[in-house]
Every structure is written in structure tokens, then in C-alpha cells.
Amino acid sequence: MRCKFTLGVRLGALTAWLPAVALIPGFAAHGADIPLAIIGPHEYDLPVDFKPFNVVVQYGDGNAAGSVYDSGGQRRARGGSHTWSGMTKYVHFRSFDAIPHVSFAFELIQSEAYTLANGQNWGGLGTTIVGPAGWFKPNKHSTLGIQTFMETPSGTRDSMAMHYWANLSSIIFDYEWKHFSFDGDLGSVVSSTKHRNGEHSYSAGNVFYTNLRFSWKASSRFEPFFSLDWQNSGGMHDNTSNLWVANSSSRETALGVGAMIYVTKRLSITPRYSHSVEGRNVAETNAYYMKIAYLF
User: Fold this and answer.
1) Which residue segments constitute the domains of the chain, with CATH numbers given?
2) Global pTM?
3) How far apart are CA 76 and CA 73, in angstroms?
4) Bridging pattern class, strands 222-233 and 202-203
5) What number of other Cβ atoms are within 10 A of residue 131's Cβ?
6) Mind listing the pLDDT tens digit for each residue in 16-63?
């Protein structure tokens, strides 16, 4: 029997949303992770009016970005990187008697990453992400809600830190048929201004994104799915020089396939492969994802 409670509201690798090929002084070039790209099928197939429970989720992904998309949208075999990242997440789910038929989740996420690019490598603990989500069920087959998360500027190494705050907010939705499911999100990322001693001040452009998952309920334990991830990032502004940074806006669309495997009613594993189909000013997505969720 399929276990809804292994679903949770899961975050993608937010630390990698800056333009990947715009080598801006003071900003490290990041991999091509689209915000919330880690989510799987039934991500937002969430219950209401339940007793409190907890979920622990471990994510991992590796991206071998051997090529980049230039400012004209052409794929070029240069400037690539290899990144490996993880996210360890604890989620507390609960309902309140005073707010019937509406439920909430409170999340604490720690990111980890290792990057190999331009003959250099670095790794460690990245930013910490915290925030709530809330939802209701318009009918017994669907879910609709919102989530908002803050990402801290810190990291264990200077190269792992963003040095500014960021907020990710999105609308979340899910619809269930007998043999199929469709869910996803639509949102944006906004950030504070980056200030560091001895460097220019920068403002990052807003990011808009969507992540869609369509799955086939092949059996009670195996569910293959198709994924679409898209993002569009505004350009970077140099506040000190009062100039826009050239080729700092970016766009990417990635398609993927995967499967959600229910090991037990409380444990699920979701592997997936995804690749870019178009982009601009961004390193390609050529990534394998893995998600392990456990309910307790």
C-alpha cells in the first residue's frame, strides 16, 4: 500500500541558483541546480487533520556539467564542473484543532556540497534553510498550499557561503487519479544585497521557477515518473558601479525520468536522471538524483 506520509515538502539545492558562467568578481561559479529540482512524485500529496509526526529525508545528487549554454542559447563544450551535494532534512508535521482541515510542516535543512571546477576543488557544509509550509485539500483527490523558506548566508568555508540572505516561496499543488498523479510547484527566489569588505556590492536578480512531476502508479511499490524543471534568473546588478553585469541573467529547462520505490510503508527511495534541453548563461544539468525518506 502506498504510504502518503513519506512525501513531505522537500527543498532542492538552493545554493546553486546564481548564473553559472557569469564569472563575477566575488561570486563563485555554481552548478546548474534548478531550485526544488530534487522533488519527486507525490511531493505535495499531503494529509490534513492528523496527529503530529516527523520525517527525516536525505538527498544526494551529482551533476557532471561538461558543457555550458552561452548568452545565445548555444551549447558549448567548455567551462564545465562536477558537483556533488546533499541535504539532510528534518520535518515536523502537525495540525491544530483551532484551524480545522488545514495542516502545516516546519522544516530544518542542512546542505552539504563538494565541487570540482577549473582545476580547483572545495567542499563542506553550506547554508542552513528553515521555514514553514501550509496546505488544505479542496477535495479528497487534491492538495493546494504555500511554502516559504529562508536561507542563511553562512557556510563552513568561504566558498560554501552565499554572504547574503535568500527567501524561496512557492505555491504547491497535487492531484491524484486512480492510476496517475500530477504535482509540482511554482515560485520565486529573492535575495538581500551582498556586502563584503573590500568588494563591490551586488544585487542578484529574482529567480522564477517551476517543478512538475507526472507519475504512473504501476504497482503498490513501484512508480515511474517524468519530470520537468524550469528556471529564469534576472541579471546581476553591481551597486557600487551602478552597472548591470553582462551575461548574468540565465534560463534553463531540464527533463528527466525516475522511479519512486516503496521499500516499506515508512521508507521510500526515489532515484532520477535529468538533463537540460535548453538554456542560456548556465552550466548544463546532467545529473543523477537520489532521495531517501523515512517516517517516524
Assistant:
1) 53-189+206-234+246-265 (2.40.160)
2) 0.85
3) 9
4) unpaired
5) 19
6) 222 222 222 333 333 347 999 989 999 999 999 999 999 998 988 899
